[in-house]
């Protein structure tokens, strides 16, 4: 009898464990969308506090401010090589820029293949923003188009970091 009661109790515990595991949400899309809303509010608050227009790259949530348009008629693809200089900041929730976490410096102008950089740069350095060689742009990149939920401890970025990049575009090569 005791053996039978223990067996029934064990079965009930297993059912309870299964049901409790099923109720936990692990919906990645919902988590990404929720973080996107948070990121959008952080970017909007910063732009509003600085009196800057909220210009979006399509519906991605990546925003930009063009300082100088540049000249030319460059076409951008994932194979396009861009030569530029940049400075990157963490955008904090209190509408301030955090510390510089990355910079090419004033005299070094690295070249990158657009398909190899974060998605925020790919979207921000696109035909939609119309930035051309000689131009300068500031990109406001939601976390999902940067490093997402993965902290970048080597440069001091937390998970879900919203980033700001000021980019001077020197050359575009296809």
Features:
174 residues, alpha+beta, seven-stranded antiparallel β-sheet, elongated
Verbal overview:
The chain is of the alpha+beta class and 174 residues long. The protein has a domain at 55-174: Chitinase A, domain 3, CATH 3.10.50. The protein has 3 helices and 7 strands; from the N terminus they run ααβββββαββ. The longest helix has 22 residues, at 2-23. It is elongated. The mean pLDDT is 87.
Helices and strands, with pairings:
Layout: H1 2-23, H2 28-49, E1 55-56, E2 63-68, E3 81-91, E4 97-103, E5 111-113, H3 119-124, E6 136-141, E7 163-173
Antiparallel strand pairs: 1-2, 2-6, 3-4, 3-5, 3-7, 6-7
Structural class: alpha+beta
- In N-to-C order, the SSE pattern is HHEEEEEHEE
| Number of helical segments with 4 or more residues | 3
Question: Which range best describes the helical content: under 10%, 10-25%, 25-40%, 40-55%, 55-70% or over 70%?
Answer: 25-40%
Rg computed from alpha carbons, rounded to a whole number of angstroms = 23 Å
Number of strands: 7
Beta content comes to 25-35%
Low-confidence stretches: none
Shape: elongated
CATH architecture of the domain at 55-174: Roll
> Main β-sheet: number of strands, strand sense, barrel status?
7 strands, antiparallel
- Mean model confidence by pLDDT: 87
How far the N terminus sits from the C terminus, by CA atoms, comes to: 80 Å
CATH class of the domain at 55-174: Alpha Beta
What is the CATH fold-level name of the domain at 55-174?
Answer: Chitinase A, domain 3
């Amino acid at each position: 009898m005791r053996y039978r009661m223990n067996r029934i109790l064990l079965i009930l515990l297993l059912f309870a464990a299964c049901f409790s595991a099923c109720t936990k949400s692990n919906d990645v899309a919902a988590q990404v969308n929720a973080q996107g809303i948070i990121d959008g509010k952080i970017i909007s608050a910063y732009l509003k506090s600085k009196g800057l227009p909220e210009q979006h790259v399509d519906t991605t949530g990546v925003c930009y401010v063009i300082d100088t348009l540049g000249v030319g008629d460059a076409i951008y693809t994932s194979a396009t090589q861009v030569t530029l200089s940049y400075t990157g900041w963490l955008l904090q929730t209190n509408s301030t820029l955090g510390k510089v976490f990355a910079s090419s410096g004033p005299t070094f102008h690295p070249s990158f293949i657009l398909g190899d950089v974060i998605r925020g740069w790919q979207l921000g350095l696109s035909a939609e923003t119309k930035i051309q060689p000689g131009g300068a742009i500031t990109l406001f990149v939601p976390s999902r188009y940067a490093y997402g939920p993965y902290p970048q401890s080597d440069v001091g970025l937390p998970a879900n970091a919203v980033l700001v990049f000021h980019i001077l575009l020197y050359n575009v090569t296809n």
